[in-house]
Amino acid sequence: MGFKRQLYLWHRWLGIALCLLMALWFVSGVVMLFVGYPKLTPSERLGHLPVLPAACCAELPAQWAQSPLQRLRLTSLGGQPFYLLDLVDGRRVTLDARGGEPLERANETQALAGARQYEADVPLIYRGQFDEDVWTHSRGLDTERPLHLVELRDANKTWLYLSGRTGEVVRDASLQERYWNWLGAWLHWLYPLRDGFGFENGWRTLVIGLSLLGTAMAVLGMVVGVLRWRFRKAYRNGSRSPYSGGWLRWHHIVGLVFGTALVAWIFSGLMSMRPWSVTDGRSRLDATTMQGGTLRAADVSIPVTRALQLLSGELNVVEMEWRRMNGINFLAARDSSGDSRILLGETLIRQFSPEQLLAAARTMAPAIPVEEDWLERFDSYYFARDAQSMYGAERRPLPVLRVRFDDPEQTWIYLDPASGEMVARHDQRQRVGRWLFNLLHSWDWQPLLERPRLREVLITAFSLAGLIICLSGTVLGWRRLQRHPRRRRAASPQGMQDKSVS
User: Fold this and answer.
1) Which residues does residue 404 pair with via DSSP β-bridges, in sequence order?
2) To the nearest 10°, the Cα dihedral for 54, 58, 59, 62?
3) What percent of the chain stands above pLDDT 90?
4) From CA 238, how far away is CA 247, in angstroms rounded?
5) Beta strands at 347-349 and 370-375: parallel, antiparallel or unpaired
């Protein structure tokens, strides 16, 4: 069998197996462009927190004030102030900020109180506690499981998912999000098959395998399409394509024009799974050194009551966090809109200087040269996405300080001057992955991100073209499968006998 014939057969049978699935990927992808998988964005979380009164809280108990910490927040749970501690030994502790009593687990009553804090004026229905459902597959929720589910009788018919550890709202899902995501994320990410495998990472292996086969099919289709096109002399039908009409012609012409986009989308979908860890980060720089020592609440000398009094003159504080940067202990406070202030002792500032941030960054690798840039606009690797996108829950403030290390992995970090927090980090492998996935799959290119309507129109138009390619391939595949039984019947002894009788 000739080489060309092999190409045609491989493309044909891969298309028969995969074209319908790929058509579903295009339909669900367009849905996800406008309605994303449910998530709780930073603005939603902060926007539903009550203001912390100046006299709301007692000091953190001495036992915990001296403990080494990864993180410490003062926030509200169920309308009451609580300290949330992440200890360096991995433990997570929740303390009532009025008396210091620990909260071991959040029960139904506390979950309902958390939902009431989120939306005060609507009826609530408690739907129980569970580990995971179709809207809570995210691995980022693993430390909060089991989750409580509370239904709000609001205009959006919202479902709230609350942490079984703290009672904090960790996800909201409106009826619109739930409705459309049966056609969107649920199909696009093949969630019906997620729990259907008995071996580890079975769903992930399946998605990678299907994406590899889909990429091969699309590439073969482009090759076959070019081989079938007459560049010098038309066919007898007067066309450069051998197909004078019907689904074959649609498949050939649209495939040649838009096939490159089809290949890019299927391949970039494969890269979204980070197959074989090829785009995983390899940077060995330790970000914890930026603290300049261990974070302890006791090292922030100002009392909580005094801190809230000082902050109240400029900010209606809904959350406060204890932080340490390059040996400096401070408090970072935010209001419900995300506006923030930094409290250094009794001195209130809006943000750290670029020099202070750079000095902290250099502690990660004192002997390595760095380049720094003060960014007031997004760059190609640090950018914000709309709330409905899969990155909609990531905080991407501006301005930031970008620090580029000349280490073997070419590590870049982005520091928020309003909090001293590292809000993004990536090395060269991850930046390559950004082009292979984000650019090719979501068209996350700054000129398009700055023109969201144009981006949506272009993605929708190219997706419709991809859908035509896949649907025409599905029809052709179905016809091919129907043709085979007829040929087998004609070639059978009974078929030969029927022909001779006729």
Assistant:
1) 371, 412
2) 180
3) 86
4) 18
5) unpaired
Output the pTM of the full model: 0.91
Local structure of 87: helix, strand or coil:
strand
DSSP state of 434: I
- Amino acid occupying residue 280: D
Estimate to the nearest angstrom the gap between the alpha carbon of 173 and the chain centroid.
15
Alpha helix segments (H runs only) across 153-200: 175-181, 185-188
> Distance between CA 298 and CA 59 in Å, rounded?
10
List, for residues 75-120, the tens digit of each pLDDT value: 999 999 999 999 999 999 999 999 999 999 999 999 999 999 999 8
Question: DSSP readout, 313-364?
Answer: TT---SEEEEEEETTEEEEEEE-TTS-EEEEETTEEES---HHHHHHHHHTT
Question: What is the spatial distance between Cα 219 and Cα 490, in angstroms, rounded to a whole number?
Answer: 35
Q: Where are the chain's structural domains? A: 1-38+177-277+452-502
Complete edge-to-edge strand list for the sheet that includes strand 147-152: 124-130, 147-152, 159-163, 169-173
pLDDT at 493 over 60: no
Per-residue pLDDT of 122-180, as tens digits, reads: 999 999 999 999 999 988 999 999 999 999 999 999 999 999 999 999 999 999 999 99
Count of alpha carbons within 13 angstroms of residue 251, beta-carbon side: 22
Q: Phi and psi dihedrals of 342, rounded to 5?
A: -115, 135
SS3 426: strand
Token pair recorded at residue 49: 């927190």
Query: Which tokens hold the place of 463?
Result: 């997706």
92: tokens are 């997570």
Nearest to 33 by CA among 447, 468, 443, 470: 443
Alpha-carbon distance of 194 to 190, in angstroms, equals: 7
Contact present, 37 and 390 (Cβ < 8 Å) = yes
Helix (H) or strand (E) holding 128, with range, is: strand 124-130
Residues 6+ apart with CB under 8 A from 121: none
Q: What is the pLDDT of residues 319-356, one digit of tens each?
A: 999 999 999 999 999 999 999 999 999 999 999 999 99
Rounded Cα gap, residues 346 and 312, in angstroms: 13
249 vs 243: CA distance, rounded Å: 5
Q: 283-295: string of b/e by CB count within 10 Å (b at 16+)?
A: bebeeebbbbeeb
Residues in CB range of 139: below 8 A, 6 or more apart: none
Q: State the DSSP H helix or E strand holding residue 151, giving kind and residue range, or none if neither.
A: strand 147-152
If you average pLDDT over every residue of the chain, what do you get? 93
